[in-house]
């Protein structure tokens, strides 16, 4: 059966900014299908190039992370004609975003919990950067928390690698963190301390972090200077 | 009834506008235009603004048919290019003291947003703010206009201006961006670097690429009419990036409205944004003439702020630089 036909019977979970995400079965296993559909606002040649490149990059970086022991969904199958990725569905999971929003609403003891989560994110990103994977779209919606069986510690899973690429440059890693910082703080007001904790554990987890943090500071400064001119 | 007069002069435009409860009573403006291939320098721009500001002020009062006594508050624009900004703030401070009226510093970007909301009646839009110095995607939440995406290096307007300088023959009247658009009609597509990082964009790579490529084409005489085509691909790429980060922010915030503000919001950008909105079942709002820096937008944001109890004390009125998300939005729920 062709992929588009297959999708017409699948359950649409979400239409994000650039893809439709479906829930389906793949060879009997619960799967997520991510379909990058054409964007009519941009030139068709540009659109096709971008869509193809992002599908390729997503698969490539997921594999690279998994090889290094960084949790990411298993890729089952890729169809490059319809730009669809079939991957493992991360069961019993919530996005880090929903988790933080929930924790901020209920007040009991969440401070410690959020800081622990921040530490975990920092460690995972340090490991990812040590593999020279630049995620390119770090937000709290692109990280899933998978609950372990029976109250065991939950696991952080990275997703949505469409804008990722491979680079060893501290500048690229610094910008990756800068993008996360801005998305984090604008999505979750009053979490400056939580984010600080995240950076601290990033710094502690990677040998190469000093150069990255230095770049992060430079990029921030550029942003502040720029904001002075209307 | 509340009447607010607004002074704008943070870049190459100087404008004075008067707003009375949502009604634009007057909004005269002058633009400092430099010869082709030249950007505007702060000191020259300030000289221009100094020379015309009192004439523009008189026009604003005359067209509105008002006396200084009818004004409730004097608002002036805040972050921007140092020298012209100081000129305008000085005039605002002086008239506020002469007329015995309260003074109010207004964030320039918030001026654009509030004017956009007034004109289009958009309720809670995701805002794309594109101007000479700024490129930001902004949405309102919990008492702030929060910046979800922005350029991590140069602004889109700045990028277009510098591109116009590379091509030399592009006029600055009314703006390089406008003239690039006029020259860009109908051509084939050439690939350029495309850099989106999450909800942020980067334009410096594309600029250095085009500076290098244009130079090569121009010096080898391959480029006479072809450079016109270049501009098309150039805007196609730039604007696609802007539409993409706007859509990303919308998906992120669950928003179904877009408002484009700032001087770079031209027709092609609106057209592309409209297609994106249509595909998402969202609504696009554009402010056309009120997109460009003007006095009324400062008056309108000032009106909202003043009604919610904000004023700026004289000793605090020295021009300070602040980001859009540092302003507490006291006038929205
Ligand atoms: N493997 C997966 N298992 C479980 N849920 C997933 C998986 N992949 C994606 N999702 C869910 O679908 C959402 C969107 O996926 P993804 O981020 O990959 O697409 P997207 O088009 O970038 O969406 P957006 O633009 O909204 O970020 C995720 O936030 C997550 O809730
Ligand atoms: Mg995503």
From TrEMBL, chain A:
<feature type="domain" description="Protein kinase">
    <location>
        <begin position="7"/>
        <end position="230"/>
    </location>
</feature>
<keyword id="KW-0418">Kinase</keyword>
<keyword id="KW-0808">Transferase</keyword>
<keyword id="KW-0378">Hydrolase</keyword>
<dbReference type="GO" id="GO:0008033">
    <property type="term" value="P:tRNA processing"/>
</dbReference>
<comment type="subunit">
    <text>Component of the EKC/KEOPS complex composed of at least GON7, TP53RK, TPRKB, OSGEP and LAGE3; the whole complex dimerizes.</text>
</comment>
<dbReference type="InterPro" id="IPR011009">
    <property type="entry name" value="Kinase-like_dom_sf"/>
</dbReference>
<dbReference type="InterPro" id="IPR022495">
    <property type="entry name" value="Bud32"/>
</dbReference>
<keyword id="KW-0819">tRNA processing</keyword>
<keyword id="KW-0723">Serine/threonine-protein kinase</keyword>
<dbReference type="GO" id="GO:0000408">
    <property type="term" value="C:EKC/KEOPS complex"/>
</dbReference>
<dbReference type="Pfam" id="PF06293">
    <property type="entry name" value="Kdo"/>
</dbReference>
<comment type="similarity">
    <text>Belongs to the protein kinase superfamily. BUD32 family.</text>
</comment>
<comment type="function">
    <text>Component of the EKC/KEOPS complex that is required for the formation of a threonylcarbamoyl group on adenosine at position 37 (t(6)A37) in tRNAs that read codons beginning with adenine. The complex is probably involved in the transfer of the threonylcarbamoyl moiety of threonylcarbamoyl-AMP (TC-AMP) to the N6 group of A37. TP53RK has ATPase activity in the context of the EKC/KEOPS complex and likely plays a supporting role to the catalytic subunit OSGEP. Atypical protein kinase that phosphorylates 'Ser-15' of p53/TP53 protein and may therefore participate in its activation.</text>
</comment>
<dbReference type="GO" id="GO:0070525">
    <property type="term" value="P:tRNA threonylcarbamoyladenosine metabolic process"/>
</dbReference>
<keyword id="KW-0539">Nucleus</keyword>
<dbReference type="GO" id="GO:0005634">
    <property type="term" value="C:nucleus"/>
</dbReference>
<dbReference type="InterPro" id="IPR000719">
    <property type="entry name" value="Prot_kinase_dom"/>
</dbReference>
<dbReference type="InterPro" id="IPR008266">
    <property type="entry name" value="Tyr_kinase_AS"/>
</dbReference>
<keyword id="KW-0597">Phosphoprotein</keyword>
<dbReference type="GO" id="GO:0016787">
    <property type="term" value="F:hydrolase activity"/>
</dbReference>
<dbReference type="GO" id="GO:0004674">
    <property type="term" value="F:protein serine/threonine kinase activity"/>
</dbReference>
UniProtKB/TrEMBL annotation, chain B:
<keyword id="KW-0963">Cytoplasm</keyword>
<feature type="binding site">
    <location>
        <begin position="129"/>
        <end position="133"/>
    </location>
    <ligand>
        <name>substrate</name>
    </ligand>
</feature>
<comment type="similarity">
    <text>Belongs to the KAE1 / TsaD family.</text>
</comment>
<dbReference type="GO" id="GO:0002949">
    <property type="term" value="P:tRNA threonylcarbamoyladenosine modification"/>
</dbReference>
<feature type="binding site">
    <location>
        <position position="108"/>
    </location>
    <ligand>
        <name>a divalent metal cation</name>
    </ligand>
</feature>
<keyword id="KW-0808">Transferase</keyword>
<feature type="binding site">
    <location>
        <position position="266"/>
    </location>
    <ligand>
        <name>substrate</name>
    </ligand>
</feature>
<dbReference type="InterPro" id="IPR034680">
    <property type="entry name" value="Kae1_archaea_euk"/>
</dbReference>
<protein>
    <recommendedName>
        <fullName>N(6)-L-threonylcarbamoyladenine synthase</fullName>
        <ecNumber>2.3.1.234</ecNumber>
    </recommendedName>
</protein>
<feature type="binding site">
    <location>
        <position position="112"/>
    </location>
    <ligand>
        <name>a divalent metal cation</name>
    </ligand>
</feature>
<feature type="domain" description="Gcp-like">
    <location>
        <begin position="29"/>
        <end position="299"/>
    </location>
</feature>
<dbReference type="InterPro" id="IPR043129">
    <property type="entry name" value="ATPase_NBD"/>
</dbReference>
<feature type="binding site">
    <location>
        <position position="161"/>
    </location>
    <ligand>
        <name>substrate</name>
    </ligand>
</feature>
<keyword id="KW-0539">Nucleus</keyword>
<dbReference type="GO" id="GO:0046872">
    <property type="term" value="F:metal ion binding"/>
</dbReference>
<dbReference type="InterPro" id="IPR000905">
    <property type="entry name" value="Gcp-like_dom"/>
</dbReference>
<dbReference type="GO" id="GO:0000408">
    <property type="term" value="C:EKC/KEOPS complex"/>
</dbReference>
<dbReference type="GO" id="GO:0005634">
    <property type="term" value="C:nucleus"/>
</dbReference>
<feature type="binding site">
    <location>
        <position position="129"/>
    </location>
    <ligand>
        <name>a divalent metal cation</name>
    </ligand>
</feature>
<dbReference type="GO" id="GO:0005737">
    <property type="term" value="C:cytoplasm"/>
</dbReference>
<keyword id="KW-0819">tRNA processing</keyword>
<dbReference type="GO" id="GO:0061711">
    <property type="term" value="F:tRNA N(6)-L-threonylcarbamoyladenine synthase activity"/>
</dbReference>
């Amino acid at each position: 059966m062709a992929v588009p036909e297959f999708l017409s019977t699948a359950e649409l979970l979400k239409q994000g900014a650039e893809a439709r995400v479906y829930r389906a079965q793949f060879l009997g296993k619960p799967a997520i299908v991510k379909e990058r559909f054409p964007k009519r606002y941009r030139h068709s040649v540009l659109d096709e190039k971008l869509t193809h490149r992002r599908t390729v990059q997503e698969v490539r970086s997921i594999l690279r992370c998994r090889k290094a022991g960084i949790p990411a969904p298993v890729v089952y199958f890729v169809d490059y004609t319809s730009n669809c990725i079939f991957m493992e569905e991360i069961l019993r999971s919530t996005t880090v975003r929903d988790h933080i929003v929930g924790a901020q609403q209920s007040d009991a003891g969440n401070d410690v919990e959020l800081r622990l989560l921040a530490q975990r994110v920092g460690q995972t990103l340090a490991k990812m950067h040590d593999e020279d994977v630049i995620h390119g779209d770090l937000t709290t919606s692109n990280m899933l928390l998978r609950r372990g069986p029976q109250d065991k510690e939950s696991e952080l899973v990275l997703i949505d690698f469409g804008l990722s690429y491979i680079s060893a440059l501290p500048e690229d890693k610094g910008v990756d963190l800068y993008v996360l910082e801005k998305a984090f703080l604008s999505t979750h007001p009053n979490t400056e301390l939580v984010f600080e904790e995240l950076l601290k554990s990033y710094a502690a987890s990677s040998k190469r972090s000093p150069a990255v943090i230095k770049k992060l500071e430079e990029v921030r400064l550029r942003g502040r200077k720029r904001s002075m001119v209307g | 009834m509340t009447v607010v007069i607004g002074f704008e002069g943070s870049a190459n435009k100087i404008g004075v506008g008067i707003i009375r409860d949502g009604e634009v009573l007057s909004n005269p403006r002058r633009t400092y235009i430099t010869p082709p291939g030249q950007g505007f320098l702060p000191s020259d721009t300030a000289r221009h603004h100094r020379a015309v500001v009192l004439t523009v002020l008189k026009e604003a009062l005359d067209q509105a048919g008002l006396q200084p006594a009818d004004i409730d508050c004097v608002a002036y624009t805040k972050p921007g290019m140092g020298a012209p900004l100081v000129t305008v703030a000085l005039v605002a401070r002086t008239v506020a003291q002469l007329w015995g009226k309260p003074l109010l510093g207004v964030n320039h970007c918030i001026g654009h947003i509030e004017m956009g909301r007034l004109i289009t009646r958009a309720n809670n839009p995701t805002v794309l703010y594109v101007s000479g110095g700024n490129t930001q995607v902004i949405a309102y939440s919990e008492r702030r206009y929060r910046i979800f995406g922005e350029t991590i290096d140069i602004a889109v307007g700045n990028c277009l201006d510098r591109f116009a300088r590379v091509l030399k023959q592009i006029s600055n009247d009314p703006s390089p961006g406008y003239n690039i658009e006029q020259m860009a009609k109908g051509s084939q597509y050439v690939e350029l670097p495309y850099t989106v990082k999450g909800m942020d964009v980067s334009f410096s790579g594309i600029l250095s690429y085009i500076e290098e490529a244009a130079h090569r084409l121009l010096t080898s005489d391959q480029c006479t009419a072809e450079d016109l085509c270049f501009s098309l691909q150039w805007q196609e790429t730039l604007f696609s990036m802007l539409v993409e980060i706007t859509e990303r922010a919308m998906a992120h915030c669950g928003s179904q409205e877009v408002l484009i503000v700032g001087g770079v919001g031209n027709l092609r950008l609106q057209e592309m944004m409209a297609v994106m909105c249509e595909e998402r079942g969202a609504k696009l709002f554009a402010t056309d003439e009120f997109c460009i820096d003007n006095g009324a937008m400062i008056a309108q944001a000032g009106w909202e702020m003043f009604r919610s109890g904000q004023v700026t004390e004289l000793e605090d009125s020295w021009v300070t630089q602040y980001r859009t998300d540092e302003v507490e939005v006291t006038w929205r729920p």
